[in-house]
Amino acid sequence: MHSGSRENHWGLGRTAEGVLRIVNAINSPWLQITSDTGNFLENQYEQLEMMAPKTFLIQAKTYFGGGKWYTLEIDYKRVAEIFRKVDYRGYVSIEFEGNEDPLTAVPKSLELIREAFDKGNLQTV
Q: If you ran DSSP here, which 8-state letter would residue 99 be given?
């Protein structure tokens, strides 16, 4: 059981290097990484690859109807393959940040993520 997680999100967590610097400096099995697919605005796949081995939770961001703040094109089959390579067996949560009605966008998001991660042992919640 993990008690803490560092997400790639602004400040020191703006880059994979920053997140790993924190996690490696603390060097505790109780601190792992939440990999948010929508928080890297450049080199997103390379940065996710760097964090994948220490990832405890994948947060899959979707933007149906255009993003509230920005929109990223995310290739979820490529993301799933990154985590499959490190034998990730944790959960994939969905974070919807689009402008479409959540009643239609969330089911679409779930379908998109399930389709991409279906080959492996990953669980979507």
A: S
Calculate the alpha carbon distances from 25 to 5, 8, 38, 110, 125 in Å. Answer: 14, 16, 25, 35, 30
DSSP 53-95: GGEEEEEEEE-TTSBSS------HHHHHHHHHHTT--SEEEEE
- The structural domains of the chain, ordered by start, are 4-124 (3.20.20.150)
pLDDT band at residue 3 using 50, 70 and 90 as cut-offs: low
What residues form DSSP beta bridges with 31? 4
Cα 118 from chain centroid?
16
The pLDDT-based confidence of 108 (bands split at 50, 70, 90) is: very high
Q: Which residues are registered as beta bridge partners of 5? A: 32
Q: pLDDT confidence of 96, banded at 50, 70, 90? A: very high
Range among 29-33, 68-72, 111-115 with highest mean pLDDT value: 111-115
Q: What is the C-alpha R_g of the chain?
A: 14
Q: Which residues, listed in sequence order, are joined to residue 104 by a DSSP beta bridge?
A: none
